[in-house]
Structure formats: C-alpha cells, structure tokens
C-alpha cells in the first residue's frame, strides 16, 4: 500500500498530532512492545498485559489488554521505517485470512519531520459507514483518542 490514498470521511477515521520529539522516538514508541504497553490501552480502562510485534510485512502483531482476554491480532502490510506503518486486523501473520467477530480495520500510521518535531497521522480505514459508526458508538474512537494522547505523552518522556 505504498503511496498516497484518498481518505473518505464517511468510512475513515483520522487523528493527527504534532509530537515535540524526533521521528526516531515516534517510530520506537510505535513499534516496540515495551513502549506500546505504556500507551496503547487507555489507562482508565485497563492495561496491555502482553504484546508481540514482528515489524515486517507479513509479521504478526498481537496485543492482549486484560488477563483472560483474547488478543487483538493482525498483520503488518507495509513497513517503511520512520515513515509509514500499515497493519490490518483482516489478516493474521503470514497474510493468512483472519477469523474474528470484531469490526476489522486497516490502520495507517505516517510520520514526517515538522520543524523541531514530528507530524504523526493515524488513519483507520473501515469497510463501510456502518462499521465506522458502530466503532464510534462502541467507544473505540474515544479510546483511540485517549491512546494517541498517551502515545504523545510517552514519547515526550523518552526525550
């Protein structure tokens, strides 16, 4: 999925933040399990108890957010270090079709140097408007916004 894509506001969710830190710290916080555990789950809601990431195309990501919970799993689709990371919950590792009962997304994280910091953009692509609306109603959007704020705060703590 290299190159630009067109965001559809009816099906896609976009968050953008300026991070007052160099791009390599943003990339590190996004791709290393020890960092992801610090920001991925909104703290008032719980914590990440396990995380596995094989950051390469076809590699696994697996995040468990509570004892006894099923992991959130997916597959990295595109990895351009310190520029772009694309993953989807519609595939498991090795590009195997996923089986799940959750709303699938494809997530695209991009980062570029902006002045003394990094412009970070997170986009979640949904299959259709109904999926996006259901995700918003479930609290997923609120949780994602909290997690991105925690992500930015965690990166600042790494400086």
Automatic annotation (TrEMBL):
<dbReference type="InterPro" id="IPR013538">
    <property type="entry name" value="ASHA1/2-like_C"/>
</dbReference>
<protein>
    <submittedName>
        <fullName>SRPBCC family protein</fullName>
    </submittedName>
</protein>
<dbReference type="InterPro" id="IPR023393">
    <property type="entry name" value="START-like_dom_sf"/>
</dbReference>
<feature type="domain" description="Activator of Hsp90 ATPase homologue 1/2-like C-terminal">
    <location>
        <begin position="20"/>
        <end position="154"/>
    </location>
</feature>
<dbReference type="Pfam" id="PF08327">
    <property type="entry name" value="AHSA1"/>
</dbReference>
<comment type="similarity">
    <text>Belongs to the AHA1 family.</text>
</comment>
């Amino acid at each position: 999925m290299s190159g630009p894509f067109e965001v559809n506001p009816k099906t896609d969710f976009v968050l953008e933040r300026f991070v007052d830190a160099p791009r390599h710290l943003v990339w590190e916080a996004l791709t290393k399990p020890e960092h992801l555990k610090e920001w991925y789950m909104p703290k008032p809601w719980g914590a990440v108890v396990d995380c596995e990431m094989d950051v390469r195309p076809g590699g696994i990501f697996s995040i468990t957010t509570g004892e006894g919970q099923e992991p959130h799993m997916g597959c990295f689709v595109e990895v351009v270090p310190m520029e772009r990371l694309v993953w989807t919950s519609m595939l498991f590792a090795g590009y195997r079709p996923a089986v799940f009962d959750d709303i699938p997304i494809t997530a695209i994280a991009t980062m570029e140097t902006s002045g003394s910091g990094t412009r970070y953009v997170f986009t979640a692509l949904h299959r259709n408007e109904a999926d996006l609306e259901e995700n918003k109603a479930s609290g997923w959007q609120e949780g994602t916004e909290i997690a991105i704020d925690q992500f930015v705060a965690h990166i600042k703590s790494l400086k």
